[in-house]
Amino acid sequence: MKEKNKHKSGFISIIGNPNVGKSTLMNALVGKELSIITPKAQTTRHRILGIVNGKNFQIVLSDTPGIIKPAYKMQNSMMNFVKEALIDADILIFMVTVEETELKDEKLFERIKKSKASLFILINKIDLSRQKLVEKTVKYWESIFPTAKVCPISALTGFFIPELLDLIIELLPLSPPYFPKDQLTDRPERFFVNESIREQILKHYDKEIPYSVEVITDEFIESSKIIKIRSIILVERETQKGILIGHKGNALKQVGIGARKSLQNFFGKKIHLELFVKISKNWRSNNKELKRFGYNN
Ligand SMILES: Nc1nc2c(ncn2[C@@H]2O[C@H](COP(=O)(O)OP(=O)(O)OP(=O)(O)O)[C@@H](O)[C@H]2O)c(=O)[nH]1
Ligand SMILES: [Mg+2]
Fold first, then answer.
1. Whole domain around residue 35: which residue ranges?
2. Closest residue by CA, ligand 1 atom 8
3. In terms of domains, do 157 and 214 share one?
4. If you measure from the C-alpha of residue 4 to the centroid of ligand 2, how many angstroms do you get, rounded to a whole number?
């Protein structure tokens, strides 16, 4: 067989309940902080591709939003991203934590059962758990999905990550690469700016604030040493704008400091970041606005 015919590529979708560690796993496999990670549920809102390239293989990972029952239009779109990722997958990674024995959406659970993709059940966060409980959970999932590979992992500490990568490569179908071999993701630079700002908002504010926020970047000017960025944080109501900005602008300042730091790491350049807050009434239920923010599936 010719060398180029030996190339393997495939789509691997990571799905599961909110907060189980899907984004932590994708970043660990790719080796770059592509997806934002926070202790709050519904951190990820999009399907984000992370690409692992090797000499003879390309793994196209999809990080997806945690599975929830949608309450407003944006969440409908989030769940459509999950469904798309399920359809496209050559390999499906269904991620759970030790205590979990069900998916919040039964229909989706049935879809996983019917999927023709190779299935991994990854039991994550075992660094927090006792061996006996982990073993019990492995047995439970093996009984539900007899053909799946059930593996305990810790995405945070890296336990079983190199082994998982090898298992995935073994299962990849023969195929030329789907993306150029130096590409890491499908997302443009501005997406990572928006996400990095949203990550800080998830970290610094409680209750409904993080969920009422969307970020758009309307200026991204890169020169050899510095990137000048201007981003707008959209909230749904005037009261939220006040909370976000805080007394004398102090709260917003913290968001800016945090985002600048992580963007400097991400892009490897000095960052100049300007933040503005604007109101877009009920954007989470407004079709036009949702389209503008990339929830147009
Ligand atoms: N102790 C421990 N914590 C973990 C592990 N993996 C992820 N976490 C933590 O769990 C929290 C959620 O991680 P994420 O990767 O954002 O989870 P997610 O499934 O992408 O969450 P959503 O995007 O909200 O659905 C973060 O605080 C992570 O640091 C792990 O293996 N061990
Ligand atoms: Mg996530």
1. 3-171
2. 21
3. no
4. 35
